[in-house]
Amino acid sequence: MNNEMKTIVIDAMGGDYAPSAPVGGAVLALEKHKDIRIVLTGKEDVIRRELEGKTYDKERLIIQPASEVIENEEESPVDAIRSKKDSSMVLGLTMVKNKEADGIVSAGNTGAYLAGATFLVGRIRGISRPALTVGMPTGTTPTLLLDAGANMDCKPGYLLQFARMAEIYYRALYGVGKPSVGLLNVGVESHKGNELTKETYGLLKEAEDINFTGNCEARDVFTGEFNVVVTDAFAGNILLKGLEGAASYMMGGLKESIMSSLRGKIGGLLIKPYLKSVKSKLDPKAVGGCPLLGVKGAVIKAHGNSNETAIANAVTQCLTFIRAGVIDEITANMKKEAEVKTNG
Amino acid sequence: MNNEMKTIVIDAMGGDYAPSAPVGGAVLALEKHKDIRIVLTGKEDVIRRELEGKTYDKERLIIQPASEVIENEEESPVDAIRSKKDSSMVLGLTMVKNKEADGIVSAGNTGAYLAGATFLVGRIRGISRPALTVGMPTGTTPTLLLDAGANMDCKPGYLLQFARMAEIYYRALYGVGKPSVGLLNVGVESHKGNELTKETYGLLKEAEDINFTGNCEARDVFTGEFNVVVTDAFAGNILLKGLEGAASYMMGGLKESIMSSLRGKIGGLLIKPYLKSVKSKLDPKAVGGCPLLGVKGAVIKAHGNSNETAIANAVTQCLTFIRAGVIDEITANMKKEAEVKTNG
Q1: CA-to-CA distance for A35 and A23, rounded, in angstroms?
Q2: What ipTM is given for this predicted complex?
Q3: B216 interaction partners in chain A (CB closer than 8 Å)
Q4: Cα–Cα distance between A109 and A70 in angstroms, integer?
């Protein structure tokens, strides 16, 4: 059953480079994966124009017309989901809800997409809050950081569930029996932190099913010491955007100082390819996308500035997520938790 | 009056490289500034041994013997301040409290130092919470980020006071009439953020004395767009340590890929000095130290891994802080606020 054809929706109108990136990404993904169908949701004429001159397997590319678009600048992302019922995003999420598709990829409005996934696709029974999960580069397997965008104000219990979900996802992806879990915090000592992390520390320590290895300082998310790091989405966002800023600042500073002398210019030419490779390691486009863990479908958020390669990578990630059976495992885990609570 | 001799305490037992870094830093600072006295607090025999063979103005270096040391690994920093009354840190802070010294520099236990400064030196009347302030590199004048370490859980009113204090400090340092103030947040839109930032946004917008220019995303702390950025110490710590991690990760990755080929090795040799200069820009040791704004004395926290140059830089910063009259201005501002409240 796991090798059967899967259907993945791509929101053709979402992202900074829509429709060219999602439509181009669909063509790349169909070429790479012979065992998927792609549904492109969006304005039919726009999609058809983008497809002109492209070679692809027409049997496996379906267009689902949608007359509306959820923009990046919606005043209320939640209202947009409610009111734009014929948008590419809402139609795509509804297809996942109705099991007409196995998963979805969108580079569109993050707030609307996360709210829409929770409302339409729905939470797995027992999950308080779904969480967006990003893979941090470490040199070896990525460290999964969550929540990277969905829940700005969290309770300790949410973070405990984030840890359980990410552990399952990590195990499915990399086959590690007991992934190590860390808590993003301001120091390694158990008494460090704010009210949220101090209380969460206790919960994680008590949870026998979790391999909690302690607090993770922000500087250590790259060391690979932790397989999973949990946090609220506010701190997660500050960390991720800070890294982005540091990379730009350092690369900019290096370029400027290199260009200030002949010696620097020659050295700079020689190391240019290496600089590019280091920068690309910190590049979210290379990673593909971020799954929203905790909903009843494979919902992948691609970065807003994704190009067609990034969209195709996100489709690959969506397919891996589906084939690994992550949702069934989280569902089973939540059932077990509920039984323990009822019987204990 | 502003040119008279000033007395600055250096905690000789604080920091990863104590006593050599603080004692060496004292000698460097005395050489650089002819208008200061330095008081070294700590174990007299240890300090005397460190001073052996060094040339300095003996008239301007005083040793204040202290038999105890507050360690980095104290179980409770607050208890350490209470119980170790004859420690180098407590004696130093007490000298500032008693006006026997104008300011103090320590690279020791941050939690103990901040708690000690608040308890012993005392808060300026009306200030709810003193805040640790760090200068972020921008290419031009630094952006002041606070709170960088003192208050993990903040109320919106605290952040409003942080903005007022930092504005005064920035103006004193750089002579800018109306420094721009930003709020560290997850997006530029006013509705973005967690409960704290959403409420703080409203307070800052209403405060007519503050030049509030909106939310600052973590990637924009280096752009120089904001003179001051306010946040709670949890998010501040995540940002600062994340930057540290990103810098190490990128430099490590670059080194590794450069060393993988002859071309890279030659290029690497040529750009080595430029790499160093970029890294040093992100290096907290170069900045010197961070003032704790809101207490009745010039209390400067030097980074734990400060070497003697960094300690000397922190002394320079302490002297600048004293001469700029920052405390008097914050005190006057708080009085004005109180009057407005009483009369309005």
Answers
A1: 18
A2: 0.91
A3: none
A4: 7
- The structure's pTM equals 0.92
A232 contact residues in B (CB cutoff 8 A): 194
Q: What is the DSSP string of B212-245?
A: EEEEE-GGGTTSSS-SEEE--HHHHHHHHHHHHH
B73-80 long-range contacts, CB within 8 A, separation 24+? B74/B109, B74/B111, B74/B112, B75/A191, B76/A191, B77/B109, B77/B110, B77/B111, B77/B112, B77/B115, B78/B111, B78/B112, B78/B115, B80/B109, B80/B112
Cβ <8 Å between A193 and B222: no
Task: Find residues 108-127 of chain B whose CB sits inside 8 Å of chain A.
Answer: none
The candidate with the shortest Cα–Cα distance to B160, out of B116, B100, B208, B217, is B208
What is the rounded distance in angstroms from the CA atom of residue A318 to the CA atom of residue A298? Answer: 6
Angle among Cα B61, B18, B298 to the nearest 5 degrees reads 60
Of the candidates A232, A248, A270, the beta carbon closest to that of B267 is on A270
Q: What CA–CA distances, in Å, run from B233 to A155, B151, B203, B290?
A: 19, 5, 19, 13
- Which structure tokens are listed for B87? 């420690």
| Cα–Cα distance measured from residue B162 to residue B279, given in angstroms and rounded to the nearest whole number | 29
Alpha-carbon distance A240 to B266, whole Å? 33
For the segment B253-309, what is each residue's pLDDT rounded down to a tens digit?
A: 788 878 888 888 888 888 888 777 777 666 655 566 899 999 999 999 999 989 999
Question: What percent of chain B clears pLDDT 90, i.e. is strictly above it?
Answer: 73
A267-271, A284-288, B178-182, B199-203: the lowest-pLDDT one: A284-288
> Residue type for B108, please?
G
How big is the CA angle at A152 (ends A148 and A158), to the nearest 5 degrees?
80
The helix (H) or strand (E) run that includes residue B157 is: helix B156-174
Q: Which tokens go with B145?
A: 């980020």
| CB contact (8 A) between residue A233 and residue B278 | no
Task: Reduce the DSSP state of residue B197 to 3 states and report it.
Answer: helix
Rounded CA separation A7/A14 (Å): 19
Cα(A138)–Cα(A133) distance, integer angstroms: 15
Facing A277 at nearest CB: one of B222, B257, B282: B257
Length of chain B: 344
